[in-house]
Amino acid sequence: MSEPAHPDRLSDEQFRERFRAWLAANYPAELKQDSHRPFRRLRGDAAVAWLRRVRQAGWRAPAWPREYGGMGLSFRKQLIYHEELEHAGVARIIDLGETQLGPTLIQCGSEAQKAHYLPRILSCEDVWCQGYSEPGAGSDLASLRTSAVREGEAFIVNGQKIWTTHATDSTHIFTLVRTGKFAKKQQGISFLLIDLATPGITVRPIVNLAGEDEFCEVFFDNVRVPAAQLVGELDQGWTVAKALLGYERIWIGSPALAGKALELARTLVEELALTNDAGVMDRLAQLAADLHDYRLLYAEICDSIADGGKPGPDVSMLKVYASELLHRLTEFNQEVAAESGGIVGDARIGGALTDLHWQFMMARPVTIFAGANEIQRDILAKTVLGLPAEASARN
Amino acid sequence: MDDISAMLRDSAADFLEGRHDLSRLKGSIGQPQPVDRALWREMGELGWLGLELPESLGGSGMGLRESTVLAEQFGRSAFAAPYVAASLMPAVLLSFAGTPGASELAAALQGGDKLLTLAWQEKRDQLDADAPLARLQDGRVSGCKVFVPAVEDDGVLLVSVRDGSGLAVVAVAADASGVTREDFAAGLGAVSTLHFDKTPILFGASLLSGNTAQMALQRTLDAGRVALSAQLEGLGSGMLARTLDYVKGRVQFGRAIGSFQVIHHRCVDLYIAAQLAGASWRNALRAYEGGEDAGAAISAAKARCADTAQRIGREAIQMHGAMGFTEEADIGLYLRAGLQAYAWLGTPLQHRRRFMAIEAEAEHV
Ligand SMILES: Cc1cc2nc3c(=O)[nH]c(=O)nc-3n(C[C@H](O)[C@H](O)[C@H](O)COP(=O)(O)OP(=O)(O)OC[C@H]3O[C@@H](n4cnc5c(N)ncnc54)[C@H](O)[C@@H]3O)c2cc1C
Fold it and tell me: What is the ipTM of this complex?
């Protein structure tokens, strides 16, 4: 039952029903997102175990073409797929192999790279993290300095990456490294695949404000990387990395997290017996209406892509709005809970087990990563509104 | 600022510079932190504990004004010692009590030997202390108190109760029989839920009762709210100062990020917010010193300062980028401290409502 085989032959609604039924029968209840962990993530062994189960049942890699082992879903069915994950309360998994590296290799990789890496991503034999940011290169990513110098059949890599999410849970890292010096700093960057077990690599986890050691520093000290690990042309890594950016911003603008935060908000006002407090309920109504309307905007943009459009620069607005709505929701949750909002860790509120500090802190970085909102607004102002650049030009 | 205040401010700044280290608080998210007792005793040696105690109880006769100087400085450095909860509020409360028990407690407070803390609150989001459900019967207390800060095993709890004739405040040893306690990490410290089951009181009699108890509790909460407002404004100003330093030093796109107009404007807005907060709590302080009708001013200040600290904290994290999301950077500790002080002694929502209610009443007479 619930085999996804030939999803093309299913109507969208049939597809939705199948996936919903499969998730209901297979996703472990104890791993669901709930009022305690509304943005629960799976990582490490738990993530791999679940992804293998997904794979076995034929639901892995919805966006990958079928020839590479994916489901080859239409964009519309991909949307349904994500909606159903949200509906079932499935924890998020940061599976950058599937969502970023795979599509990049399919677009820009060599046949040998595709043949070697793609199956290993699907089976979770290889787990990938993203090594772009550096201490001196955050918003200004193109100023990155980690160097890769060609030496015979290898590159010798030296430098440091930072904020690398889940590096300690990963086997490999895809990086942007500097291979050449040109007038324009976006040139001379290359896209390089590195096995984290290579001698000379040190990974140090960094604890975040929610108490989790999700992101890391990764140090490279004379690390020897076979030249065949270069993706795309030498010095053209910037273009390789940017190829996927539009799609990334669509998924990052998903209203799913805000939806979970709103569920928590509703639970809290019930459990705190505030449903008759007009001031509180006005605020909640505002947030609920904001999410409602945002879902409509999100759907409109997704529909236009499903109908054959390409994600344009205006998708930046999705990330901006969704992330700031998530902020406001988590702030509401923390504030409305009064003294319980100051507790760091688990606390019961009526019948609900909560951790309001966790949800508040975990929502902080959504306006920072994947292009800080200030940068997204700059992009929107320039490319969508056509406003002139700031007087003091960058770069 | 008068001479005494200026002196206190400078000595607080020196003390914090030398003795305060935020890294001590790192790596223990979610674990209730005990009070650093050695530091607390040092504060006693500096004469900071029990500042408000009257001379009759061995105090210096200083007042809330001096305490707000300290509280603001402590906020600026995200200093975790429970100064408002375990020094200022017990001192104000004891200053209304004339019993021998009060003298003994005052001495313990000033020396920093024991932590005294007021256990008045019985439910979430509570503003007033005048109708406790906890009972005193035959010298024993039964009832429940929540969100009580700074409870230490060897501490003394000043518990609001009702006895046969009305409101009273009694002292109870934190480790006395019949006390059960659950600790939660909160902000940079801890709060406790306390259950009392026929717990014997200290000194065999209430410290305060009747109208005096009522007035003492009201003044204690008022003073606590003013000082906490100063501390919250200090937190906000401290975060802004750190953020200004950060954006001046952090270079992206070949320039300090503090040179971008977006950052300019945001920092200016936060600066204005902090100035408003300062004006608001200084007004509350004057109203408190004036004695009567301080309620509206105090509620306005607590609401303003709590909101401001949160707002500055959230923006400060954003301007620090990913660095701001790390436990290594200090900025998040400020934000966490603000999360607890935000609601303690009343949320902005409740205080703004009280502010409006008092204002409306004043217009009618
Ligand atoms: C939780 C988390 C996970 C992450 N995971 C990864 C990962 O897996 N791999 C990876 O490579 N990176 C990762 N990052 C890094 C992320 O991409 C960077 O944080 C982001 O690019 C911002 O850079 P920065 O943190 O150095 O901030 P900065 O660039 O220093 O910015 C600091 C502040 O200044 C503002 N600012 C900067 N430039 C301008 C400007 N021109 N005009 C106006 N304002 C400006 C920013 O918006 C921000 O508010 C992660 C970050 C976080 C927080």
Answer: 0.97
